[in-house]
Amino acid sequence: MAAEEQCSAPPRWRPISLTHVEYPAGDLTGQMLAYISLLPIAILVGFVTLIVFKRELHTISFFGGLILNEGLNWVLKHILQEPRPCGGAHASLTTEYGMPSSHAQFIWFFVVYFFLFLYLRMHQTNNARCVELLWRHILSIILLSMALAVSYSRVYLMYHSGRQVLYGGVAGSVVAVVWFFITQELLTPLFPRIAAWPISEFFLVRDTSLIPNILWFEYTVTRSEARNRQRKLGTKVQ
């Protein structure tokens, strides 16, 4: 349906339970895209969970970049003050301005930063075996599909125009590149010193920058410790 037709004959909007995201009533595609547009919230919850349970400095820096990116989006919206399409078709909106799309800026920051992390930072520390490269490519395709789906959902659901989504994606991508290199070149060399601060030790904040594959490292260390404890337990029983 063309944008002009949507504005002249606006659909009856139906919200997703417990959220303010609305989709055209009876539109299964719109309902699916409405759920997809909630991905940024799921990502934020995932970050908070990781920070609470892992307390790793690079994850905290990544999250800090997301927050700065959101702050920049708020500033840009209030500088440009471009209204949303169709005069704001939705009643429950945090702001009347739509340029640039905060969802697009958020998701493209996340995806582009993740791309750089996978192919630059991990490439420096890992031997690029075929299996490792394969899972990186598969994950990249999933992330790219996710970003495109979220971006499209904002246009389909009439929260933003295509132009607002495009500029949001460009802004998020640029901020991601800048923040990645700030983290790599300026912050990462400081991580060992930050991790040694008394307050960092108190809250168990750690730096894993020099560990190439943290998943494999944690798996092997945990397995080794479990076996040692099992042997000690067996010795005591005997």
Strand content: under 5%
Task: Write down the secondary-structure element order.
Answer: HEEHHHHHHHHH
Unreliable sequence segments:
1-5
Structural class: mainly alpha
Fraction of residues in H or I helices: 55-70%
Q: Count the helices. How many?
A: 10
Describe the global form: elongated
How far from one another are the termini? 76 Å
Kindly report the spatial arrangement of strands forming the biggest sheet: 1-2
Radius of gyration: 22 Å
Tally of strands: 2
Q: What are the defining features of this structure?
A:
mainly alpha, disordered N terminus, two-stranded antiparallel ribbon, 238 residues, 70% helix
Description:
The chain is an all-alpha fold and 238 residues long. 70% of the residues lie in helices and 3% in strands. It has helices spanning 3-8, 28-36, 39-54, 57-80, 102-125, 130-156, 162-187, 191-195, 198-202, 214-237; strands at 13-15, 22-24. The chain has a two-stranded antiparallel ribbon with strand order 1-2. Strand 1 (13-15) and strand 2 (22-24) form a beta hairpin. The chain is elongated, with a radius of gyration of 22 Å. The termini are far apart. Residues 1-5 have low confidence and may be disordered.
